[in-house]
């Protein structure tokens, strides 16, 4: 069985391939990327696949049995891009598509949700066998701020007391590998999130505990957080997007307590303690 992964040179894609190689022969894995040179170190077959160029997708999916379609990163263009992949998969005779969607996509208030809902609808009407992995927030989205928080003496955000049930990318990668390589996932939708939820104040407390420094959490109005991100040189669209995401997190948009992810992967999800330790080591 040939398994292909879109976005294979990205952070999630690389982890999936690394873990897949421990389960299936490297010769059965195809990395689909826009720029082949970025995937030369993956140790598997690499094919050019550009979401915006259907001709590359037709060639890239030839002979593929199962496709992991990692959602595109270009917000606002993803539905059209995903449609191209789905149509190419149908032409190529792909038997099943596993898609990385968004936690509680249908009811989510996050601005990212509509494109995922539309993509899910396209998949459901495609006639393909599908599996939906509705991924919650990546812990790395917040621990990326650990270094700056230590440097500046505070963690800032706009999430209030909202509980964030995030999981590490590695946890979601393991879920994808399970869905790709084991039976019984056809037609299933999985709501995936971390075992334990935390507030940003609790994240700041964990940073403080591990560094021995007082790193408080400062909750800011959305406009002030946006201005701080702009002043820090954070590239667009994140100075606008991150505070709005935090504002929804404050209302519970990133919370889930079902523990479906840990049940699927057969182990607890990565703890906040371990994620902070990894971020401090990398900082």
How are the SSEs placed, and which strands pair?
Blueprint: E1 3-6, H1 11-20, E2 29-33, E3 45-48, H2 54-60, E4 66-69, H3 78-92, E5 96-102, H4 113-124, E6 129-135, H5 140-143, H6 146-152, E7 155-157, H7 169-181, E8 189-192, H8 200-211, E9 217-219, H9 222-231, H10 238-249, H11 260-265, H12 272-282
Parallel strand pairs: 1-2, 1-4, 2-3, 4-5, 5-6, 6-8, 7-9
Strand fraction band? 5-15%
Radius of gyration: 19 Å
The secondary-structure element order is EHEEHEHEHEHHEHEHEHHHH
Q: What coarse outline follows from CA principal-axis ratios?
A: globular
Q: Please state how the strands of the largest beta sheet are arranged side by side.
A: 3-2-1-4-5-6-8
Count of discrete alpha- or pi-helical segments spanning 4 or more residues? 12
Poorly predicted ranges (pLDDT <50, ≥5 residues)? Answer: none
Mean pLDDT: 96
Helix content: 40-55%
Q: Do you know the CATH topology of the largest domain?
A: Rossmann fold
Quantity of strands, as a count? 9
Give the termini distance in whole angstroms: 40 Å
The biggest beta sheet, please? 7 strands, parallel
Classified in CATH, the superfamily of the largest domain is: NAD(P)-binding Rossmann-like Domain
Count of folded domains: 2
Pfam family, one: NAD_binding_10
Organism: Eoetvoesiella caeni
InterPro entries: NAD(P)-bd_dom (IPR016040), NAD(P)-bd_dom_sf (IPR036291), NmrA-type_oxidoreductase (IPR052718)
Domain NAD(P)-binding: 7-181
């Amino acid at each position: 069985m040939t398994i292909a992964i879109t976005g294979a040179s990205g952070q999630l894609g690389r982890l999936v391939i690394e873990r897949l190689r421990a389960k299936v022969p490297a010769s059965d894995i195809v990395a689909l990327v826009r720029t082949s040179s970025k995937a030369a170190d993956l140790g598997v077959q690499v094919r050019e696949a550009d979401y915006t160029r259907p001709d590359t997708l037709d060639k890239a999916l030839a002979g593929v049995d199962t496709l992991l379609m990692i959602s595109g990163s270009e917000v606002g263009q993803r539905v059209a891009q995903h449609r191209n992949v789905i149509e190419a998969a149908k032409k190529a005779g792909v038997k099943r598509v596993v898609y990385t969607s968004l936690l509680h996509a249908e009811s989510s208030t996050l601005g990212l949700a509509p494109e995922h809902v539309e993509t899910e609808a396209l998949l459901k009407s495609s006639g393909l066998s599908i599996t939906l992995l509705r991924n919650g927030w990546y812990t790395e989205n917040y621990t990326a701020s650990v270094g700056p928080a230590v440097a500046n003496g505070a963690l800032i955000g706009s999430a209030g007391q909202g509980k964030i049930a995030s999981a590490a990318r590695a946890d979601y990668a393991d879920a994808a590998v399970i869905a790709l390589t084991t039976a019984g996932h056809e037609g299933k939708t999985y709501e995936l999130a971390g075992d334990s939820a935390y507030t940003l104040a609790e994240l700041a407390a964990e940073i403080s505990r591990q560094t021995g420094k007082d790193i408080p959490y400062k909750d800011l109005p959305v406009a002030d957080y946006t201005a701080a991100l702009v002043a820090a040189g954070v590239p667009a669209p994140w100075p606008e997007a991150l505070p709005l995401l935090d504002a929804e997190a404050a209302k519970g948009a990133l919370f889930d307590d079902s523990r479906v992810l840990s049940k699927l992967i057969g182990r607890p999800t990565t703890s906040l303690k371990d994620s902070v330790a990894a971020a401090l080591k990398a900082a």
